[in-house]
């Protein structure tokens, strides 16, 4: 029996889409942090389940979604594709604006797409304990929920500034049985480097990754899960874009522009990659806009080079846009975007000129989040509000040019658990 | 163009269902608070738009849903009907448990169904200002959102204890442009009666109703909106049960038991009434369980008699179960259930023996909410958690009897903005 009676499951794909299969040239490989030689799949075995490593390294175009993952995804998928008629009216624009509402998921963001997949793959291999980092807590909540679903203990290092700004997400993780510590913590060598100098250190995703990786590397009974950056995570998120393709096709619409916010890149990639495929294989000419905070300008102001994914140097070297592993972003409310690096695949597409980055200030994104709330009735997470800001710009450009531009963006999560941030910023 | 590309709109009905048309005997009429004579429709004209009064008094079986209301409802409707396989597994029960997830709406509860309808009807008659009460803030948020959608100013009297417990819902109302005051307030004669004796008076829905009604009665430019109790509000909420009927039909399932929490009765009625129709017209034999807090036991321990809908005596006398207009419920977290009365239609069906009431303690409902979160991934609002508790009992009974009982319940709202309540109660 279907969990969801009402769902038209025709929109939910049966495979993840692997963009590497369609790239003329694949990104430079990750390097081993010790030898700086190209990483071999077995190098990842201490940290990740084998089937996850297979997802990371496969060159198949379509990777079957396991039946039990499909069942679990169908709790909330397909997610709504909404025609933003309220926003269109407020902006008085000829543009047609669509958004995919990933906040409809159980923990309120797109992160469940890969959390459920990773927890299932781990459980199938007998893993009983996963550790991870989280910024604003969307990923930590999603993994805690998925762990609860598949009988896996989850331990989360939550970036301190978000831990303090967003107690609701911590409570949610704990209600799912997740164990949550502030990062940097005194519990790991990585954490102590920062904690001992400043017990109130605001933390960063890079530091929290170091702590979680260290824990998993030291304990053979613990595996590590990552909520973004990796090729496999982008792969899992392509359910978003594949659904959106099917949903838009039914309306006879094609996007001219696809927009998403980027921290590590996963929600953007999830929506964009199935559409990037059209540019790669059909010369579709769709524009792709990746939106980041002005104060953490990885794509707009970072260098593209090899760097560690964490702040201590425990992870492989990834070829990506980076602000440097030492970069500690200011404590903005979009905790999920406070990352020094970027997914190698998103960096690669940016290098190819397919993805265009944009950056916005916190004041601007809070303003546009409020506009969106009033127009559409949904409170965006501060991360997702970055996408909204770029959409507003595109809609205004369409108005200036009097063009019916079709804009598609990812509303990657709701902001119910960020509501204090809005109150503090005069919303 | 549809706002929602993906929705199978076949589930969303085109009419509200009016249970009065199928009752062998209709409830005793409301009485004028001054004359104690049966209320005439025109007596309501100072408070409500005419088309709303028509909804209140009609005896037609099906009342067409206006096209613009259907468009607005289709932002989030049909809501999911979920097969609770996770809960079934945790309870190890042969019962089949389904829930309608009304938390998928923009402000997180079923209240938008009637808020959007009421705001639309008001706007069509040129109303530019509405006032109302709210307990936990679900209704106030829904009306603020609907007001923002149709260009109506909304002023909300929020019960003080909830105002203090749930700042997130207040912030949400304000972001939609709603103006929110704590009740009892010093702003009305009704509020001052309580405020002057105790400025920290926890308040009640009854007092907040008095304040809002008083404001609307004194100012011809302001109309009043009510989120529960009235026949018309039950009517608007029947979109829930009609969708559930269609969704279950597709699965070839029929409910044996239908469950909902009750404060004023609207989410329960919305789900139940289309199924009650089967008992009335086809002798279907479905059981209906209305669940309330032990400390506000309107149906389980109240009297059925005429009483005012508010605490001061400004509203018509309604024939209903009541704990007395002076009853001030203890400050439980399920603020939406802190009401001394009950919808006359729900009271009537309880009197007929069709609806069976149950009551649970706050400890019990928090326990079952946590169980539900872990099993299904959704955090229920404390109100909705009352329904969960009754479902757990029914599922355990089905296990004891080894029967595949089909249970359908209303998960009327999510608890993201109640998360501090869960934290304070050791969740």
Task: Describe it.
Two copies of one chain form a homodimer. Residues 1-7 of chain A have low confidence and may be disordered. Chain A has a six-stranded mixed sheet with strand order 3-4-14-9-10-13, sandwiched between helices. Chain A has a four-stranded parallel sheet with strand order 7-6-5-8, with helices on both faces. Chain A has a two-stranded antiparallel sheet with strand order 1-2. The first copy, chain A, has 427 residues and is an alpha/beta fold. Chain A is 41% helix and 17% strand. The longest helix of chain A is centred in the middle third of the chain and has 21 residues, at 231-251. Chains A and B meet through β3, α5, α7, α10 and α14 of A and β3, α5, α7, α10 and α14 of B.
Map the helices and strands.
Two copies of one chain form a homodimer.
Chain A: E1 15-17, H1 50-57, E2 62-64, H2 67-73, E3 81-83, H3 85-91, E4 96-101, H4 112-124, E5 129-134, H5 138-150, E6 153-159, H6 160-165, H7 167-175, E7 179-183, H8 189-195, H9 205-218, E8 223-224, H10 231-251, E9 257-261, H11 266-282, E10 287-293, H12 298-301, E11 303-308, E12 317-322, H13 344-351, E13 355-360, H14 362-376, H15 382-401, E14 406-411, H16 419-424
Parallel strand pairs in A: 4-14, 5-6, 5-8, 6-7, 9-10, 9-14, 10-13
Antiparallel strand pairs in A: 1-2, 3-4, 11-12
């Amino acid at each position: 029996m279907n969990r969801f009676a009402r769902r038209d499951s025709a929109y939910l794909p049966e495979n993840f889409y692997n963009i590497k299969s369609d790239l003329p040239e694949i990104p430079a490989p990750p390097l081993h942090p010790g030898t700086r030689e190209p990483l071999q799949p077995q190098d990842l075995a201490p940290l990740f389940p084998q089937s996850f490593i297979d997802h990371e390294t496969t060159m198949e175009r379509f990777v079957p979604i396991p039946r039990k993952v499909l069942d679990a995804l169908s709790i909330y998928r397909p997610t709504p594709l909404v025609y933003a008629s309220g926003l269109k009216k407020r902006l008085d624009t000829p543009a047609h604006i669509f958004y995919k509402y990933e906040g409809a998921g159980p923990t309120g963001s797109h992160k469940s797409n890969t959390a459920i997949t990773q927890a299932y793959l781990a459980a199938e291999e007998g893993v009983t304990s996963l550790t991870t980092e989280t910024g604003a807590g969307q990923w930590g909540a999603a993994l805690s929920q998925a762990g609860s679903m598949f009988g896996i203990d989850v331990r989360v290092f939550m970036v301190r500034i978000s831990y303090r700004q967003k107690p609701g997400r911590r409570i949610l993780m704990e209600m799912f049985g997740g164990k949550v510590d502030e990062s940097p913590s005194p519990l790991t060598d990585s954490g102590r480097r920062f904690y001992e100098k400043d017990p109130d250190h605001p933390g960063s995703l890079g530091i929290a990754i170091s702590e979680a990786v260290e824990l998993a590397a030291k304990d053979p009974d613990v595996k590590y899960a990552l909520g973004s950056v990796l090729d496999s995570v982008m792969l899992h998120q392509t359910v978003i874009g594949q659904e959106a393709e099917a949903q838009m096709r039914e309306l006879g619409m094609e996007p001219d522009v696809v927009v998403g916010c980027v921290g590590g890149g996963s929600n953007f990639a999830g929506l964009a990659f199935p559409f990037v495929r059209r540019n790669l294989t059909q010369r579709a000419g769709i524009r792709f806009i990746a939106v980041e905070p002005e104060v953490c300008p990885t794509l707009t102001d970072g260098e593209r080079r090899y760097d560690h994914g964490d702040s201590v140097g425990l992870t492989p070297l990834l070829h990506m846009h980076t602000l440097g592993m030492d970069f500690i972003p200011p404590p903005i409310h979009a905790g999920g975007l406070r990352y020094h690096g970027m997914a190698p695949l998103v960096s690669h597409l940016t290098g190819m000129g397919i993805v265009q980055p944009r950056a916005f200030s916190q004041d601007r994104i809070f303003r546009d989040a409020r506009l969106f709330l009033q127009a559409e009735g949904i409170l965006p997470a501060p991360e997702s509000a970055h996408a909204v800001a770029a959409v507003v710009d595109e809609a205004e450009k369409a108005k200036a040019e009097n063009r019916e531009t079709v804009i598609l963006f990812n509303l990657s999560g709701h902001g119910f658990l960020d509501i204090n941030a809005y109150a503090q910023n005069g919303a």
